[in-house]
């Protein structure tokens, strides 16, 4: 079988790809290292401009500046495509000096390591090189390709969410370049995330002299925690975890306040509605007389649901992979990404198009080098089919 055109072209540019990746990985860009993220943003800006992109920065005070790069294609009637990748990592300042980009072997497989190499500097670069292959082959038959490289994804994309939402609404499809983990997988859905706090209010009193006049908020909260945790697993596609509990100031005081923080994951909007109703039902019935229980919080990332629109993108990826002799499967993910934002707006979205590898957020994070040409070709093939 003849080698796929995009795979062959991607194989021919692996050395410059890896040189670019080394340059990116060796720049410290932890979420809270603004100077480092901004340095990486300037590096990427130059890389985009060499390809003919127009660029601008959405400037930030707390986090690094978000980079937007736009390339005008050959077809004014073609699709408007948005690619998303984040520049920030979970690692502290100085991590790149301690363990810079390196190439080695893992169980006989050629790999590269370094902070953020998988999540997700290689993903950003895969997107750039995939578009580069189209441009060089005169196949840029889109109206526009826009990249947004945000600086705060690892802490929830709070400062970039409005920008991503605006760009998504102006686009016909969104490709998110988070890690693919396995060469024949993409992500077609992600669970939504909601965070809640339950507060128990009681009455303080002296624990030795007048304990009967107090109402122990910790005891009330304990009953609530047991009842809330019992909800977990009762609603399809929903999980609930009471992860943090706080209460009391001194052992000789009956505490008048206690609270717990809860993580909820939902596969769809129906599950979100059901879990909130179940939680409200629990807290509406305090166990101890004289106590009061309050629920607050809500969804931070809407679920990225597998819809008819996203399924069409999966089918296009599968068609592109078939040309490479690869059979792509789409899988769900329990974690959230910027795909939750774009899919939540109803824009067709696909995720998990980045590099293959493992141990994200771990000092031994790695990517598989031999699979890089396939992943670049996969994105190029998807973009080409979106233009047809």
Automatic annotation (TrEMBL):
Gene3D superfamilies: 3.30.70.360, Zn peptidases. Coiled coil: none annotated. InterPro entries: ArgE/DapE_CS, Bact_exopeptidase_dim_dom, Pept_M20_glutamate_carboxypep, Peptidase_M20, Peptidase_M20_dimer, Peptidase_M20A. Residues 189-286 form the Peptidase M20 dimerisation domain. It holds the Pfam family Peptidase_M20. It comes from the Bacteria. The keyword Transport does not apply. Its cofactor is Zn(2+). Keywords: Hydrolase, Metal-binding, Zinc. CDD domains: M20_CPDG2. This is Peptidase M20. It comes from Dictyobacter formicarum.
């Amino acid at each position: 079988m003849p080698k796929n055109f995009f795979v062959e072209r991607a194989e021919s540019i692996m050395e410059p790809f890896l040189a670019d990746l080394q340059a990116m990985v060796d720049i410290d860009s932890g979420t809270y290292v603004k100077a480092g993220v901004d340095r990486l943003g300037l590096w990427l800006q130059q890389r985009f401009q060499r390809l003919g992109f127009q660029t601008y920065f959405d400037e930030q005070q707390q986090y690094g500046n978000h980079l937007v790069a736009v390339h005008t294609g050959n077809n004014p009637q073609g699709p408007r495509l948005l690619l998303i990748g984040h520049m920030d990592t979970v690692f502290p300042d100085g991590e790149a000096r301690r363990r810079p980009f390196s190439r080695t072997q893992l169980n006989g497989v050629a790999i590269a390591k370094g902070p953020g190499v998988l999540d997700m500097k290689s993903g950003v670069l895969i997107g750039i090189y995939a578009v580069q292959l189209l441009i060089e082959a005169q196949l840029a038959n889109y109206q526009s390709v826009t990249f947004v490289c945000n600086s705060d994804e690892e802490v929830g994309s709070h400062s970039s969410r409005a920008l991503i939402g605006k760009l998504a609404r102006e686009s016909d499809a969104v490709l998110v370049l988070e890690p693919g983990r396995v060469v024949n997988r993409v992500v077609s859905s992600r669970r939504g995330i909601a965070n809640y706090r339950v507060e128990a209010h009681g009455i303080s009193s002296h624990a030795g002299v007048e304990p009967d006049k107090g109402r122990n908020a910790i005891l009330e909260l304990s009953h609530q925690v047991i009842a809330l945790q019992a909800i977990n697993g009762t609603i399809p596609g929903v999980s609930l975890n009471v992860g943090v509990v706080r209460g009391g100031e001194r052992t000789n005081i009956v505490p008048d306040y206690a609270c717990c923080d809860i993580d909820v994951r939902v596969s769809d909007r129906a599950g979100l509605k059901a879990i909130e109703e179940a939680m409200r039902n629990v807290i509406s019935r305090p166990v101890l007389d004289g106590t009061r229980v309050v629920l607050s919080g809500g969804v931070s990332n809407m679920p990225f649901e597998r819809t008819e629109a996203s399924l069409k993108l999966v089918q296009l990826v599968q068609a592109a992979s078939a040309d490479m002799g690869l059979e792509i499967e789409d899988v769900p993910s329990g974690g959230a990404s910027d795909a939750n934002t774009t899919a939540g707006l109803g824009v067709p979205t696909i995720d998990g198009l980045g590099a293959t590898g493992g141990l994200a957020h771990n000092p031994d994070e790695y990517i598989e080098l031999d699979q890089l040409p396939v992943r670049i070709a996969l994105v190029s093939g998807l973009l080409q089919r979106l233009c047809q």
